[in-house]
Design brief:
The chain is of the alpha/beta class and 402 residues long. The protein has two domains: 16-259, Type I PLP-dependent aspartate aminotransferase-like (Major domain) (Aspartate Aminotransferase, domain 2); 264-401, Aspartate Aminotransferase, domain 1 (Alpha-Beta Complex), CATH 3.90.1150.10. It is built from twelve helices and 13 strands. It has helices at 16-28, 43-55, 66-76, 94-101, 119-129, 146-156, 207-217, 232-235, 251-283, 313-325, 358-364, 378-401, and strands at residues 59-63, 84-88, 105-109, 133-137, 159-163, 171-172, 175-176, 183-187, 200-204, 297-298, 303-307, 331-332, 367-371. The strands form three sheets. Strands 1-9-8-5-4-2-3 form a seven-stranded mixed β-sheet, sandwiched between helices. Helix 4 links the parallel strand 2 and strand 3. Helix 5 packs parallel to helix 6 (146-156).
Length: 402
């Protein structure tokens, strides 16, 4: 039996430059973003300016997490209590959680065989729900047909908010993911493309939305120390009527992220090299299918997904177990029991209206997910493929015997 020994949850150490930047902040003791001395610009304000420049956006806010960023993005976009919000059913629980936190009502939309939002179901539910908002989750790095999505949003006057937690650095037709919506949100949680343990970033070109978001995040009346915001006059109409939800990013995390932002493009290339090695191997295994990646999509392969479409859920569960005993950690999105970070849409019982998502259920029943950390090399990727192939044969042999 082949066994893989490396961890799927061990991240690369931070670079010496990032460590030095963090130590420099710690030596000052000024970790709070608004704790600065005369003439000093905080690390958090600098991160916001640099991230906005990278994304080609006018405004940026750094905050406590990606989920928090989505929460205040919805509020800042004008969502009110009880408003329906369209959202693809294949996502992670913080996404509908953010909708619930903002007071909205999640309207789940089917996905297609390539794990992206189903355009036909989106059209139907845009019409039937009367929703003014689409929270589009580019789940596990799969970018939808953004031309088709934008056409629907324009036709029905829907405000698009992009959840780009898994697509930082990815592009559709050369345009960065996060550049399509009214607002876009990113995560710097440990398993994302930037790592500060927890953290979030929100971008927009809407001066009213960013002013409200900054106030929601807990700026008190210190917003003028930000760099990626509009003139102070924009804040005048919001500063006394916007609640403080206290979700700021601190200077320590920002100092680490500023360095990583400059390392991002190189790391994206490294991820794609590893992804390509695994994808090539998986395509050679009978019974496994991978999603189609359109030529317009420039993805970042920090994880890889594949399906076992002709298998029963029982066989998929057996396969996941066979991989686990061989050291390969596969997450199964069809599992009826939520495990760790992974849960299926029908386990979110706080969503009051669960439609019959038969297409999504069929796809999730055989959908397998694998992290691709940068601690791996190409030989590791080939070993992972060999383990998966052995696990497939193991399950098929059991099925034949029975």
């Amino acid at each position: 039996m082949q066994v893989f020994s490396k961890s799927f949850t061990q991240q690369e150490p931070l670079s010496e430059k990032a460590i030095a930047s963090a130590v420099a902040v710690m030596r000052t003791g000024r970790l709070h973003r608004y704790n600065t001395i005369e003439g000093e610009v905080s690390q958090t304000a600098l991160l916001e300016k640099e991230f906005a420049q990278y994304m080609g956006a006018q405004y940026c806010l750094a905050c406590a997490s990606g989920g928090y960023a989505i929460h205040i993005a919805l509020k800042s976009a004008g969502m009110t209590k009880g408003d329906p919000v369209l959202c693809n059913a294949f996502t992670l629980s913080p996404v509908p959680g953010a909708i619930d936190n903002a007071g909205g009502m999640t309207v789940l939309v089917e996905i297609n065989d390539d794990y992206k939002i189903d355009i036909e179901d989106l059209k139907a539910k845009a019409l039937s729900s009367g929703a003014r908002f689409l929270l589009l989750s580019h789940m596990r790095g799969h970018i939808s047909d953004m031309d088709a999505v934008m056409e629907i949003c324009d036709e029905h006057d829907i405000i698009l908010i992009e959840d780009c937690a898994h697509t930082l650095g990815a592009r559709w037709k050369g345009k960065l993911s996060g550049s399509f919506g009214h607002i876009a949100c990113f995560s710097s949680q440990t398993y994302k493309h930037l790592n500060s343990g927890e953290g979030g970033l929100m971008i927009t070109n809407d001066q009213d939305a960013i002013a409200q978001a900054v106030l929601y995040s807990g700026s008190y009346m210190l917003y003028s120390s930000h760099l990626a915001i509009p003139d102070d006059k924009v804040f005048d109409q919001y500063r006394l009527v916007t609640p403080n939800y206290s979700g700021r990013m601190d200077n320590l995390r920002a100092s680490i992220l500023r360095v990583q932002l400059h390392e991002l493009e190189g790391n994206c290339r490294r991820w794609n090299l590893l992804y390509g090695t695994i994808a090539k191997g998986l395509r050679s295994i009978a019974g496994i299918t991978l999603p189609m990646r359109p030529r317009h999509e420039e993805y970042v392969g920090s994880s890889i997904q594949f399906s076992l479409p002709d298998w029963t859920p029982e066989k998929v569960k057996e396969f996941v177990g066979a991989c686990a005993v061989r050291g390969v950690e596969i997450k199964w999105f069809g599992d009826p029991v939520p495990r760790a970070f992974t849960s299926r849409y029908d386990s979110w019982h706080y969503i009051k209206k669960h439609p019959n998502l038969s297409k999504t259920r069929r796809i999730l029943d055989s959908l397998c997910d694998l992290r691709v950390p940068l601690t791996f090399d190409e030989d590791d990727c080939r070993k992972i493929v060999a383990v998966i192939e052995e696990a497939v044969f193991h399950v098929l042999a059991i099925s034949t015997d029975s």
